[in-house]
Amino acid sequence: MNDRLRLAIQKSGRLSDRSKDLLERAGITLEWRSGRLDCRALDFPLDVMLVRDDDIPEYIADGSCHLGMVGANMLVERLDCRGKQGRYTTLRPLEFGRCRLSLAVPKDGPLRSPRDLNGKRIATSYPNTVKRYLQEQQLEAEIIEIAGSVEIAPTLGIADAICDLVSTGGTLVSNGLIEIATVYSSEAVLAKTSKPLTPEQSVTLDRLTTRLAGVVRAEKAKYIMMNAPADAVEVIRGLIPGLEEPTVMPLHSQRNRVAIHAVAPEPIFWETMERLKAAGASSILVVPIEKIFD
Ligand code: PRT
Ligand code: ZN
Questions:
Q1: Is the pTM of this model over 0.85?
Q2: Ligand 1 probe mutation, 12, 14, 101, most atoms within 8 A of CB
Q3: How far apart are the first and last CA of the chain?
Q4: Looking at the structure, do residues 134 and 77 belong to the same domain, yes or no?
Q5: Within 10 Å of residue 277's Cβ, how many Cβ atoms?
Q6: Which of 12, 37, 118, 291 has the CA that lies 20 to 30 A from 250?
Q7: Cα–Cα distance for residue pair 144/150, rounded to 1 Å
Q8: What kind and span of H or E run contains 21?
Q9: Does the residue 293 lie in any domain?
């Protein structure tokens, strides 16, 4: 069968639940059988492979998987920094798995900036990305490659600094480390192989990306409705970030007021609601959107 697409997602870890959830919300039913690392979608020409996140970039690059949901950090480390950036394209960010690859040093030590790392040792699981950063910054430091628990390296005396992923920053604090520079900002993305797809697979890919885009955009977007003075419509449009054409309808009983309905692409915060009210809006409703299909 050459019409089915093969998608790699992380088997277990920080990205796996969100990846499965996205597929499910895109209307793709997967029946996971215990012990099996591949799964055929029941109602869509898609097969999903459960693998380690480290392996996803190479599967995409060699075309053994057409698609992958993976941290952009991993694509940079495994492909871009090895001159293989042409082997894939990033189709879209997935709005989860946000983190940054940061340089960190002992809080109580003498190192304070990337310049101080000249001649020092940096422990990391991202040696290629760190090497590229050092070259760009014209710094010379020794890279100590460690598979995991990188934060312990300075305490063990095997490195002077670390370069690791940070999300809340809690792990750095617990290990007496502070960030001194961001090397790369990352989030999970949908990436596609550069190897050619069959016409059937291309059609499936279009359907899949449209659905995923609909789910990802809907997650952030809100539907907002309110009544407002007719002459405040332009002010109100300016108060809602990214708002495109709102629908403006006359109110049956109040001639100088209108109903405004619109899709807001970003979340609506309480501060915005307060500003809308100050501009004369009333009965402001903000409701979640399940899917967007353009
Ligand atoms: O078994 P497998 O190889 O598939 O999984 P893994 O253990 O290597 O990866 P996993 O699940 O930890 O991470 C997968 C991806 O999640 C990463 O490649 C990133 O794209 C993304 N991600 C987002 C993170 C984090 N946030 C994160 N905080 N990956 C790892 N961390 C770790 C970090 O290494 C550090 O140890 O969490 C710790 C720091 O967290 P905070 O919140 O204390 O700052
Ligand atoms: Zn991994």
A1: yes
A2: 14
A3: 30
A4: no
A5: 13
A6: 291
A7: 10
A8: helix 16-25
A9: no
